[in-house]
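Predict structure. Chain length: 396.
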Amino acid sequence: MTLSEELTWRGFVNQTTLKDITELDRAPLTFYWGVDPSASSMTVGNLAMAMMVRHFINHGHKAILLVGGATGVIGDPDGKAQERDLKSLDEVARNKAGIVSQYRKVFAGQDFEIVDNYDWFKDLGYLDFLRTVGKHMSMTQLLDREFVQSRIGQGGSGISYAEFSYSLIQGYDFLHLFREKGVTLQVAGADQWGNSISGVELIRKLEGKESHVWTGPLVVNKSTGIKFGKSETGAIWVDAEQTSVFDYYQFWLNADDAGVIEYMKMYTLLGKDEIEDYERQLQQNPAGRAAQKALAYEATKIVHGQEQADAAVEATAQLFSGGESQLTPTVEITPGTYPVAELVVKAGLAASNSEARRLFEQGGIKLNQQKVETAELTVASGDLLQVGKRRFAKIA
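Prediction complete.
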């Protein structure tokens, strides 16, 4: 299967400047993809694009993985209704380290180079930037960008000059990498189309050369219509400190039938024949959930390694047979009697008391696999607290 065929079959085609996507099947090229350090970890939304990048590498293209130390200081306004809060340089540095660590894990064994755009922006003066970039970017085109229109139009919250300039900064990244690394393609998520085009325009105007953009779609939960990776308590993170391996595995294990095959294509490296076999099993015996089990195992293995994936499988089997597992998250809570909402928040299974109360009213809280029906709950060491189908915490 060629790269263009692979990307099409796996659902990684959105927008591109390429006139014919089979151009990707010709001579190897150098491309870049980046993540801003707005957090110390990628979410599974970012991970979809990382998996797309893996296919580019597998088909012989050279990858430059960018961590946005400079753009992270400003914050990408695209898709945001309000101005971002600025992060401190120390926080950005910590977040960068987290993203770089995940690059090395997700792309382990593959050929790639990591760069930080702070390295070329830290010594670039304001006047030089205006002459090099600002002079060649049309205000009309920038004002026509959808995210700018949404912020400055009727009812919009407005946009600062800093966030308005984000597109120029990202455009300069592409220009710099074109000049220094021979990058001729930027790979990105659908929400980065406008920012990516800025780089294409700069390369055309300043270098008289052609470059291109390839974007993959934003993944949406087919059952809820919500951007993929969001749960009752927030995003699903790649970092095990923010989303435990057990919860990560359970997230995939509970994929709905409507989306599981699509997720397998994007989030695993299983081949076409294997996935089509799981699709047949899904149609013939949906209750068996063979596709969900394969998805959960393969997706967890890519991010956390085979040993942790095996442990997650064992933990799930033990948990639902009434046993215990060291992989189930353990929380330090003194045994005693607590209001249910307070206990659930303490255990990290809800973000707020109001959310915990809603879960209680909906019958979504269990203790030792028994539905909780009283407003106060007495817990002892070793008790298993459960919220919904896949969130668990064991009382220390």
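Summary: The chain has a mean pLDDT of 87.
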